[in-house]
Amino acid sequence: MSSLKSLESEYPIIDSNFHKFCASHAIFTVEDFLLNDVYVLVAFAECQSNSKELKQGITQVLSIIDSLHPPWMNGVDLLTDAQRNKQVLSTGCEGYFNLNFLTLDLLLGGGLHEGQLTELVGPSSSGKTQVGYLLVMADWL
């Protein structure tokens, strides 16, 4: 991982004072910076006499990181993306398997989800292979 010193020549706000501040919090690389809580760093920066420059340096490092990587996605965004872009393949077992009044599709949340691995688990001779064959045939037809 690149050191913060390597950014100094290209970004003047990341100067020796910023490096000293980061070093006092055991931040020497960009990876160290990512592992720290940004809000805590900003709170510590506000206690310094040169807080404005330190906060600008923190913002600069964050913008460098954001420009080099795709945007971060939170769990809600990932779920929305999965619901919008993934298909649910029906097993075709709406009425074939009655497991305690639940059908296989209902048990699987609507069917087999594209991009997910579905594992069938059960004791010997419980019908796992038959369910697998039925699912293959339902998809093939």
TrEMBL record:
Localization (cell): Nucleus
Main location as per UniProt: nucleus
Single GO MF descriptor: single-stranded DNA binding
InterPro entries linked to this entry: HRR_RAD51_Paralog (IPR051988), P-loop_NTPase (IPR027417)
A GO CC term attached to the entry: microtubule organizing center
PANTHER family, per database record: DNA REPAIR PROTEIN RAD51 HOMOLOG 4
Protein name, entry field: Uncharacterized protein
